[in-house]
Design goal:
The protein has 407 residues and is an alpha/beta fold. The chain is built from 15 helices and 13 strands. The relative contact order is 0.12.
């Protein structure tokens, strides 16, 4: 068990070495939730996530035991960056094993912080296995979550929350391997025993939830998720011993809700969060995090290291889901002026064209016609209905079995 005293010690060593990240009130999410909501912005931390805390504390307290081979770690990205930077600051070499699907941006960031990156394995567990093999050659293994020092370092977040908002009633924490939830829960409950700690996992990999339900650390099947940072098939041994006692509830967030949360954080709060960092907001949006109207809740935004190409896909998916993008096709007579007439109808409906593709050579297309595929920016689903009505009134028929377009 990790003691509050160990977490206080970690916080003292980390002072001045990591950022004391902001805790900000959110009127938007408070209004949606029906109670006060604050965001703990670990996405603004050095390396873009909370992982630098545990890695720094672990390395600094074990410098005399780390050999010439330096350190080795396994991670999908955030722990990798934390270990690489903490090792570089301490003058140590670092080798990081990452799953083959780890995002390119996280790979490059890890190299930028001084780490030697090895891609191996289809899961974090596979990468850990390889890292442990490398540790036999004189390197010191830094576990991403199943280590007392790592947990104590992450727990410093809980201390910061309690110092700034001592009457907080609920803290929601992303859960992957469980180190973050374990550390924060110990720190928070030491200062406020009755506080509720809610863990949030991606629906695609509910390892902690299943472990708590069954009473044992089972390995679950993991599906690809935009919350790749918490796609851990089995919760850690030490974290599980803490989480099962200190975390009151574990809830799940769907992929659609996570995408929506990423977009809302970016659009409403100007906060860039990766999928794993946005899961608590996703759970709030889905209504699985509940509290009385007078309650004060903190959502931990654990990281902001999202791959740009993934962010583009998430934004497009989220905008489409929220009625902010409309995609459709119409057939036009292939002659001058027909496309301009179509675009005039769209402009008249106050929509903005984002993408347009003019296809004249499709299979089954008459020689005197072309298929025009459009992607347009819309306000909401009501606006989409208005555009459809305007197109129908102008004689256009959207592809999908309703006939061909005139004009």
């Amino acid at each position: 068990m990790i003691s509050p005293a160990e977490i206080r010690k970690a916080a003292g060593i980390l002072k001045g070495r990591v950022i004391r990240t902001p805790l900000v009130y959110s009127p938007t999410f408070s209004r949606l939730a029906g109670f006060e909501v604050y965001l703990k912005l670990e996405n603004l931390q050095v390396t873009g996530s909370f992982k630098i805390r545990g890695a720094t504390y672990k390395i600094l307290t074990e410098l005399d035991r780390i050999g010439k081979g330096g350190v080795v770690a396994a991670s999908a990205g955030n722990h990798a960056q934390g270990v690489a930077l903490a090792a570089s600051r301490a003058g140590l070499a670092s080798t990081i094993v990452m799953p083959e699907w780890a995002s390119i941006s996280k790979q490059e960031a890890t190299r930028g912080y001084g780490g030697k990156v090895i891609l191996e394995g289809l899961s974090v567990a596979d990468s850990i296995k390889r890292a442990l093999e490398l540790a036999k050659d004189g390197k010191t293994f830094i576990h991403p979550y199943d280590d007392p020092s790592i947990i104590a370092g992450q727990g410093s977040i809980g201390l910061e929350i309690m110092e700034e908002l001592p009457d907080v009633d609920l803290i929601a924490v992303p859960v992957g391997g469980g180190g973050l939830a374990a550390g924060i829960s110990v720190a928070a409950r030491a200062g406020r025993p009755g506080i509720r700690i809610v863990g949030v996992q991606a629906q695609s990999c509910p390892s902690a939830l299943r472990a708590v339900e069954t009473g044992e650390r089972i390995t679950v099947e993991a599906h690809r998720s935009i919350a790749d940072g918490i796609t851990v098939r089995q919760i850690g041994c030490i974290p599980f011993s803490i989480v099962r006692k200190e975390v009151e509830q574990i809830v799940l967030a769907s992929e659609d809700r996570i995408a929506e949360a990423v977009i809302m954080l970016l659009e409403r709060k100007k906060i860039l969060a990766e999928g794993a960092g946005a899961v608590c907001v996703a759970a709030l949006l889905s209504g699985t995090i509940k509290a009385p109207p007078e309650a004060k809740a903190v959502l931990v935004i654990s990281g902001g290291n999202i791959d740009i190409s993934l962010l583009d896909r998430v934004i497009r998916k989220g905008l489409s889901r929220n009625g902010r993008i409309m995609r459709f096709s119409v057939r036009l007579d292939d002659m001058p002026g027909t496309l301009a007439k179509l675009l005039g109808v769209i402009a008249g409906a106050k929509a903005n064209v984002l993408q347009i593709y003019h296809n004249r050579g499709g299979a089954g297309m008459p020689i005197d016609q072309s298929l025009v595929e459009l992607e347009i920016e819309t306000r909401n689903f009501e606006h989409i209905g208005e555009i459809e009505a305007a197109l129908d009134q102008a004689g256009y028929h959207l592809e999908g079995g309703r006939g061909k377009a005139e004009g």
